[in-house]
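Hi Y.,

Following your request, here is the sequence exactly as I used it, all 312 residues.
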Amino acid sequence: MSDTPAGPAAPLDDVMLAMDVVDTLRHRQDLAVRELDGAAREKQLIERLREIYHSQGIEVPDHILKEGVSALEESRFVYTPPPPSFKRTLARLYVSRGKWGKPALAALAALLVVIGGYFLVYRPYQSAQAEGARLELAERLPAQMDALYQTIFEETKVQQAVVEAQSLRERGKALASEGNREGALDAIERLTALRDKLRQEYTLRIVNRPDVQSGFWTFPEVNTDATNYYIVVEAINADGDKLSLPIENEENGQTEVVDIWGLRVPEVVYQAVAADKRDDGILEMSEIGRKTYGFLEPEYVVPVLGGAVTRW
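Below is the corresponding structure, written out as C-alpha cells. Let me know if you'd prefer a different format.
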C-alpha cells in the first residue's frame, strides 16, 4: 500500500465541468495551441474560456477552468488506445466475431469435410483400387489363363492347339507379373479365341448364287507371270446360318472378319468347278470341306493351296 494519503475526491459536477472544458479546448484546438504554445499566460486562456461559456449562458468557476486547462496539458480525459499486440488482436477478433464467426465456421466445416473425405473415403478407395489391381494381375488373370489352357488341352484333338495355348499362357503370365494389364488381357483374348475356334463346327461350301461369282483368278503382284486361282467359299453351321470368320488376306497380310472369301486352289480344281457350273448353272458338289469339333482347320475334300483373299 502507498504511504501517501489519498486526497479528497472531487465532486462529480466539478469533474463533469472540467471534462467539458477539455472537450471545448479539444474542439477549439486552434485556440488551445495558440494560447498554450504562445507567450500568453494561462490567465488569458482562462479569460477566453470564461467568455466562451458566458456567451452560452454558463458560469464556470475559475478553478474549474484552470483544472480543465491543466487536464488538457496532462492529456487527462483523453482515451489513448493500447499499442498493437497479440492480446489486442484477439480482443478485436472476439468483439467482431459476429461478422466473421459464421463464415469462418462454414469454412472450417467445409475444410473438415474435405479432409474427412480424403482420409475416410478417397484414400481407402484408392487403396482398395490398388489392391484390386494387384490381385487381378497376381491371381485372377493368371487363373483365367490356366483355366483356358486346361480347357484347350482337354478339348483339342491336335497338338498344335496345345503348343499355341502354352505359349500364350506363358507370355500372358510374364506380362501380368510385369504389371502389363493390357498385355495380359490380350493373351486371355487370344486363348479365348483359340478355344472358340476348336469348338466351331461348320461346312465349307462354294458360293452358288447368281449374284456372286463362284471363282476367279488373278496375277499376284510379286510374280505377274504366275496366275492364282480361287474359289469363293462360305462357312455354314449346323443350323444353316452363315458364319463370319477371321481370314488372313495373303495379298496384304491383314486379317479381316468376313462371311465370304476366296480360297486359293490348284488350277485343276478351279477348272473343274468352272466346268461343273457351266454344265447346268448348278454346282453338283458344292461342299469342299468340313470343320469338326476339336480341330483348328477344316478337312478339305479337294486339294487347296492354303492361301486366301478377302477382297477381289
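The chain is about 55% helix and 15% strand.

Thanks again,
Q.
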